[in-house]
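May I ask for a sample protein chain and its fold as tokens?
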Amino acid sequence: MLAQVLNRDFTLGTVAATEQQLRSVIANRRAGILGRPEDPREIPTAELEELADALAGAFAAESGPHDGPRPAEPGAQAPPPKTDYAYLPGNPVVGLVQVALEAHAAGMDVEERTMADDRRGGPLPVVTDRRLAGVELRMTGDGRRLWGRMEVANPKLLSDPGWLRSVASMLKRHFRGTAPFVDRPGAPPALAESARIVLVGDWGSGLPRARRVAEQIAKQLDDPGAARRQKHVIHLGDVYYGGEHEEYRDNFLGPWPVARGRTDVASYTLNGNHDMYAGGQDYFAALGDPRFAAQGGSSTFALANDHWQFLGLDTSYEDAGLYGGQAAWVAAQRADHPGRRTVLLSHHQLFSAYEAGARTLRAKIRPVLDAAPLDAWFWGHEHRCLVYRDLENVRFASCAGHGGIPEYLVEALPVPPEGLVYEYRKQYGTGWQPWNTFGFAVLDVDGPQIDVRYVDEDGNEHYRTGLP
């Protein structure tokens, strides 16, 4: 990930400048002015107009006012906006512009050196040291990062006709429609009586610290104490920025903690909203990797034994929802196997102490929860580590979305909301920018018991509990 691309002002400035350049190309064509170096001739004018309109709509959706972060502790100085450092837009078109920027940077000068405002407090940057060379960081008096909204666009980027072609190609893949939904495969893989299941969410960033998380997961898999256990690693979704082929290759499949050719560990990955930005084709293609064979090419899966059933849900094919008959499938699995306790896995959250729950997901799963309490639910999406008990008819719930994306540790809640029993608040780095520490969850299954441990990117176990 490039530091400039992770800056909101820089990325949105590029979105706006690209739209303006496209409008210029369209106007020149209509005026009969052809052969200009910025004119991508092979793209029909109607497609350029569609692209320009999409960029304009995306800019409008993302450029409104947004609240800055609260200080980490009451009375402390508030840090600059997180989007100066780690901008991951909710709009898929802007996300795909970020993909195009990263891809186009392969032909530009990229350098890696410590930032002027670095406060890493360790060997690795909080976010990234990679940036486009010659596009300089400017700091404001209140600590904001400014890369300059138009600086790369003229003349370094938009004067290159390849830029318009590449961003048009990227967005064309978005407009081509979503990949077909692959229904559940056949019989679920058998879960052994003794097993180790590692859960990591929002890990697919490729950042150096995310790779450290992969190294710590590999240590958990190779732990002599787990030698006799069956092993599974489950990603709770999101490969950044937009779930494109190169991102799966470089940020996900390449650094995945289960090495290619290893056959004693089964791998799974859920569908996240960023995985669907380009239509999901590359997400489903990644499931063809032999390491993910247990998933059977489907974005949902079951892993079960006589005591437990883990049901992986797709909450992103329908954004923050539950596409198709998944809710009925969960209800049927519970009804058909009354002796099994049920653990749901998903990308989006049912509820949160900090953000809204996924409204459509909540509505669709509510009849299942009303029928009988759910034993446990693990999710990602928020880049936090949170544990809840006995809330909304869920006995145990946990957000484990802190695998690979920096998140500010906002001001601690003076009174923890109902049900919240734990939040990992160890700060990564030094100074007054309170970034989170990455990590994952380890579930050790022993017959009817499951021990849950939370381990951070340094290998420290910071919380341990059992499923109720």
